């Protein structure tokens, strides 16, 4: 499965003049952990400060004396760093390319100069509406240019944005609005995804009827589809009516490095989403540095991250990182399978995308459709591929490399979290040979460690709970409104360390392999087996498209293995295939890993960002379908009903 000999060297000819080499990585990594003050103090010069910081870090992970502060006497504005400072040298460079849901709609190219003007106009309008430093603004928009404009306009005036994914329901909007106490919501009449309209404004109307949302004074509505909406005066205002007449310059608010930049709720894979708070200086520095180094960014790159701005990936790697670096970033309104499953590859050809960053869930879904929809496109512009969100199965990795990348493009498998602000473990593409399924090595300044259940640090090639032993600038600073929950969630399990919640293996080469959530690890007769490994073994079978594995209580073994399996398009479900898959997993991993039950799954429960929600599958496997927990972030609840109906019932 993960053949230890399978090392993919950096392709010859990949490196450009600015590419970080192997020796450069080793040297700077060593320096970054030996003298973090010097390393990050120097790195901070990549930003434009109104007042340069004299102090670099002030950190203690000790719950009794807890603090995480970076560049604490520095002052800057994030929107100035993403816009104003590029105007002189690259004002006419394209900052954002917008590709609409419908390929027949003309794409839009917005230069840095134009984006600056748009941000300033909205920032002025927000100020006129009484929004100021520290106020919270909820952004509930489709993937249109205004989403980035809204985030940066908030940053310009020091308001704290809270982006809520445009696919969320009125309940989810209301929960988040109530939690952060927003004064204003920016939304659109409707969104468009896969040819279907999404009633955004109507969802906001419904949300604002729910309890706890009466802090909202104003709703700004972008005219996007021009579908009919119900405007309630004076609360609701058309965006263009309020914004278009504003001056196109706007005095930025001077922000302390530790002033909040945004609140963002986690995906909800493991429970109720947490309101993650990020601050200005450290976050922006970390997003921009990782974006440049991990994607080996060059001036003429066209960079495309397919995430939604409603997730942290969209924050750090569609908006803040790329724009702080003066890059060209593509914003895609649509979905991978509309109007056809070639859409991603067609967009790459249309805009000559050179760096492409997507999620394993999308790769697996497209892999299911075979090579033909990929191979009919050119993709000659691509030079680097990225993956984020879940462990990528080696099978999907190879397909991504060989079929999408034509064997020419390195893959950066980037491990990180909403909480970490930016990528913590990933290859640097010119420096680190890759292995399918491994996120490889830590980024500068990041000190991962594996601990056992007692918090003892394990050395060498081993497996354990992934912790980070020291701070990095992009680290979250608090759970909004509940600082104690922040400390309790992340710093209590293993005192003095940040606990990620993920399990991980480290191999002989010091490479890290995420094995899945710690809560998902299955213990079969004393053998600990990660879900990622089992799922990757199943996906390796030529008929399997996707798999999710959970443990369930077992009288003899302690825990048994329950696998949910989705087959590739056109394959038939049969008892023989079920037996074949059990044999297949035994031969790939070993007899302890034999699944006890395989349930055919026409679909798997996923978060809106496409992550498999194993906690729900665990409840189904435990035959406790009445205890599914928080399902508000589920993409398609009907999937769960079908699985509950077909579940294996003991006895
Ligand atoms: P919640 O915290 O609400 O349960 P979540 O953990 O899914 O939701 P995110 O912050 O979006 O919310 O996801 C971070 C998690 O995603 C990581 O902890 C890890 O489990 C998984 N992940 C992200 N990237 C990778 C990757 N490259 N390889 C393996 N796992 C990854
Ligand atoms: Mg999480």
UniProtKB/TrEMBL annotation:
Gene Ontology terms: biological process: acetyl-CoA biosynthetic process from acetate
One Pfam family hit: ACAS_N
Reaction equations catalysed: acetate + ATP + CoA = acetyl-CoA + AMP + diphosphate
Residues annotated as domain AMP-dependent synthetase/ligase: 84-470
Residues that bind ATP: 389-391, 413-418, 502, 517, 528
Record-listed E.C. numbers: 6.2.1.1
Post-translational modifications: Acetylated. Deacetylation by the SIR2-homolog deacetylase activates the enzyme.
Molecular function GO terms recorded: acetate-CoA ligase activity; AMP binding; ATP binding; metal ion binding
Keyword field: Acetylation, ATP-binding, Ligase, Magnesium, Metal-binding, Nucleotide-binding
Highest taxon, organism lineage: Bacteria
Domain spans labelled AMP-binding enzyme C-terminal: 533-611
Acetyl-coenzyme A synthetase N-terminal domain mapped to chain residues: 25-82
Cofactor(s) annotated in UniProt: Mg(2+)
Binding positions (Mg(2+)): 539, 541, 544
Keyword Transit peptide part of the UniProt annotation: no
InterPro entries to which the protein is assigned, alphabetical: Ac_CoA_lig, ACAS_N, AMP-bd_C, AMP-bd_C_sf, AMP-binding_CS, AMP-dep_synth/lig_dom, ANL_N_sf
GO cellular component: cytosol
HAMAP family: Ac_CoA_synth
Function: Catalyzes the conversion of acetate into acetyl-CoA (AcCoA), an essential intermediate at the junction of anabolic and catabolic pathways. AcsA undergoes a two-step reaction. In the first half reaction, AcsA combines acetate with ATP to form acetyl-adenylate (AcAMP) intermediate. In the second half reaction, it can then transfer the acetyl group from AcAMP to the sulfhydryl group of CoA, forming the product AcCoA.
Family designation: Belongs to the ATP-dependent AMP-binding enzyme family.
Name of the protein: Acetyl-coenzyme A synthetase
Organism of origin: Luteimonas deserti
